[in-house]
Write a structure and sequence with these properties.
This protein has about 160 residues and is α+β, with helices and mostly antiparallel strands. The radius of gyration is 15 Å and the shape is globular. It has a single domain, classed as 2-Layer Sandwich (HIT family, subunit A). It has a six-stranded antiparallel sheet with strand order 4-5-3-2-1-6.
């Protein structure tokens, strides 16, 4: 449980931790020692990506300072990349803490998505994309991510699909 007074949805598992461990296939756009960027299978905007700390932390309040700085750097990096890849008129970045704020996964995460052609993002029911579809989204965004000196994304660890052998 988070050390704050926030109430979380009761769960005995963290789906993001399962993605990171490779238990479920999921598209990883980029990663480094502290952060991972997933292409979400529920696209609520254009190029919708989730940025998470690699270490399980329930809420933003639980992040260590270095983790918070790394997560925010990744949010900025992927924000620029989504805008460059899709030439959207706007960009939405959001983050929720606790069940009262509609946080569904008890692992702090930031949503980054380009706005839809009519503006805003979609919080209604959206299609659940295949990994192949999210791989294509990652392929479109990845060239615009900040590259390290060796050309890998963000801190030299290659992008991948979680759960591949």
């Amino acid at each position: 449980m988070s050390p704050s007074s926030l109430i979380m949805h009761p769960t005995d598992r963290c789906v993001f931790c399962h993605f990171l461990s490779g238990q479920f296939r999921y598209t990883i756009l980029g990663q480094d020692e502290l952060t991972v960027m997933f292409v979400t299978r529920e696209q609520r905007g254009v190029g919708h990506v989730l940025v998470v700390p690699r270490t399980h932390r329930e809420t933003i309040i639980d992040l260590e300072p270095a983790e918070g700085a790394a997560v925010m750097a990744a949010v900025i990096d992927v924000s620029r990349a989504v805008l460059a890849a899709y030439q959207c008129a706007g960009l939405a970045v959001w983050q929720n803490n606790g069940s009262a704020a509609h946080q569904r996964v008890p692992h702090v995460h930031f949503h980054v998505a380009g706005t839809l052609p009519g503006g805003g993002t979609n919080f209604d029911k959206v299609p659940f994309l295949s990994v192949e579809e999210t791989d294509a989204i990652a392929d479109r965004i990845r060239p615009y991510l900040r590259a390290s000196a060796d050309g890998a994304t963000p801190s030299g660890i290659s992008p991948a699909v979680a759960g591949e052998s």
